[in-house]
Amino acid sequence: MSTDVSYTPEEVAKILRISKFTVYELIKRGDLTAYHIGRKVRVEGADIESYKQKSKGINSLASPLDPPALSERLNHCSPSDEGLVICGQDIVLDILTRYLEKQFPQVHFLRRYIGSIDGLMALYRGLANVVTAHLWDSDTNEYNLPYVRRLLPGHPTCIINLVYRMEGFYVAKGNPKNITTWSDITKPDVRFINRERGSGARVLLDEQLRISEISHKDILGYGDEEMTHLAIASKVARGEADVGLGIEKVAMQFINLDFIPLHKERYDLVIRQEDLERPHFQALMSILKSPSFRNEVMGIGGYDISRMGEIIAEV
């Protein structure tokens, strides 16, 4: 790859070995610098190289697409008195961060797009302040509490509901492969696209496979992973997969997708109990209960806010 040449998003996708949709997400987030010539997007070779170097450890947690281990990715992103790290991938967190930034313009709020298990590990290691989780435990039919107890031993935490969401299958319009149950994804003509390990959707899938005594070896595409619900939905919408697992809200953004509801999940915030009295966290709790925030979240659709701001448990 020449650093003196500009590339199209399709060419960047081949260079980085990711989907074209993911390239556009990187550009949208500002992780990959690009410019426009009319309606066409171009990326300089030097900027691709810069992104690759960042992905090796420096600030790479800002994108969920980077390959380094969690401890390496978080190395340069520790919380401080001047900044708060908020981990999670849902758009509701972006709205929440915007409200916090309005109240505390002097504070640097860092958004980190990582999955539930990685987020809890970051909280345990003192590398995050607010994390989200939607981890279903099949033994107790409970969300998040069993995982918080296991992954944050000896660290008192508070679990606060953000929203409820519906998890289900993304399928092509009309559901041509007639996919309605977990066992249907084992059909020999069905191509599945999976979420990354540690995400709540991946945990839900693996738990359901265990209960149903389905081997992942029977699923075509089980090892093919994407890092966001949007990327999963986009791949199904483009016909590169027949089915993927994600939330209903994302399916609503694609006119050529149907959504098969399977499991209502509780999407919670997890913070340290010792932080509850700090001004930033008191403001967070107030925002969750404010009519303006609740109306904005309700207005975008796809979420149940009936328990938003409620303390689910103190662990």
UniProtKB/TrEMBL annotation:
Q: What is this protein called?
A: Putative molybdate-responsive regulator YvgK in bacilli
Which source organism? Answer: Desulfosporosinus metallidurans
- Cross-referenced InterPro entries: HTH_17, PBP_domain, SinI_DNA-bd
Enumerate the spans annotated as PBP domain: 98-289
For this chain, one GO molecular function annotation is: DNA binding
Q: Where is the Helix-turn-helix domain?
A: 7-54
NCBIfam families according to UniProt: excise
Q: Lineage, please?
A: Bacteria, Bacillati, Bacillota, Clostridia, Eubacteriales
